[in-house]
Design goal:
single chain, alpha+beta
Amino acid sequence: MSRPLRMSAAAALSLAALAGCKAVGPDFQPPAPPKTAAYLGPADAPSDLVRMSPDARVAGAWWKSFRSPDLDRVMDEALRDNPSLAEADASLARQRELAIATHGAQLPQADLNASAEGERINLTAFGFRGFPGFQISNPTIGIYSIGGQVTYDADLFGGLRRSTEAARARADVAAHQADAAYLALTGQTAIAAMQIATIRAEMQANETAIADDKRLIDIVRRAQEAGGAAASASDSLEAQLAAEEAVRPTLALQLSQTRHQLAALVGEAPADWAAPDFELASFTAPQSVPASLPSTLVRQRPDILAAEADLHVATAEIGVATAALYPDIRLTADIAQTALVPGNLFSYSATGWTLLAGVTQPVFHGGALHANRRAAVDAANAALARYRGTVIGAFTQVADVMEAIAQDDAEVVALSDAETAAAKALHNSETALRLGGGSLESVVDDARRLALARRALVVAQGKRLSDVAQLYVATAADWGHAKS
C-alpha cells in the first residue's frame, strides 16, 4: 500500500473510533412510575367485581370472559377485516422502513458509475489549420469510464445516531398506536354487540307492555259491555297503549343504527353483512375482573406507551439539533478507470483516484441553529406534559368505569326489586278491579310503573355489561394473541 493510502486509512480508522463516542444531547430515560396506588377517590364506592392485582393478566382474549360464541365470531371478523386496523398496520410498517432508511445514513455510502462518451474534437479551435493541398479533418474519439465513490460521515457528535434513535422511537409510537387501535376496536365491537342485545330486550319489554295494555283494555271493554264500567273507562289505557306503540319506531331506529355501526366495525357495508340477534341472556358477566395497579398500567396501556415513545422522539431530536452546532467530518474516496479504447479500460495506466476528508464547521447561521435546539427542548417539554396528561386521563377513565360498575350493581338490584314490586302491585290491582273493590286508575298506574321498571332494568343490565367491557379496555386487558 502506498504511503498516501496508508495515511488515509489510518485517518479513517481514527475518525471511525471517534464516531463511536457518546452522542451529544440527553439520553432518554422513561418517566418514573406514578406514586399513586389506587384509582378511586376516598368518596368513591368500590365494586366487588374489580380485583386489583400488581400484575393483572387475563387468560386469553378478554371478550371471551362473556362466553358469547356470537361475540367471538364477530370479533374475529372485525380483527381480520377492519380498515382502521389495516391503516394502523400499514403506518407501522412505513415507520419501521423509515427507521431502517435513517439508520442506513450512518453507514458508508457506495455508488458505482459508468459512462461511454463520443466526442468530435474541433482542431481549429486550438489553432490547427490545414496546408495547401492538405486538409485536416476533426477526429472523433470515444471515452470510456467506469468507477465508484464511497462517502462516510464520521458523525463525531452523534447527529446521525440521534436521528436513527428518533426514527426507531417513531416506529415505537406507531406500534403502540396500532395496539391502541386493536384494543379500541375490540371494545367498540363488544359494546355494539351488547347494545344490540339491550335494545332487543327493550323492544321485548315494550311488546310485553303493549300486550298488557291490550289485555287490560279487553277486560275494561267486557266490563263496559256488562254495564259495570263507564264508556270513558278505557280512555286512559288506550292513551297508554298509544304511548307504548310510539316507542317502537325509536327502538327500531336505534337497533338499525347499531347494527350498521357493527357492520362498519367488521369492515362491511350494512347491505352486505347482518349482525347476529344478540340476547342479553347470551352474555355471562364475569365474576371478577383483574385490574392492574397504576404503576403497572403505565407499562402496558398502549396510549401511555405511545406518549412515552413520543417523548423519546422529542428527546432524541434535542441530540440532533445539538450535533448540528458542532463540526461535521465527511470522508470521500473516488476511483475511476478511463480509457479511449475499451480494451485498455482496466489497465493500471487508466486508473485515477482521489481521497478527500472534508470538515464543515458552522460559523454563522443567524442564530438558527441555537434556536432549533431551544425549539427541540421546548418540544420535549411539551411531550412530557402530554405524557403526564395521558397518564392522568387513563387513571381518570379507569376510576370512572370502576365507579360506574359499582353504581350499576346497585341500580340493577334496585330495579330488579322495583320490577318485582310493580308486577305484584299490578296483579293485586287487577284482582281488586275484577272483584269490584279496585279502581281502573290504580290498574293503569301500576301497569305503567311495571312497563317502566322492565325497560329500566334491561337498560341497566345492558349498561353494566358495557361498563365491564369498558373496564377491560381501560385497563388494557389482553387481546394480542387474537391479533397474531
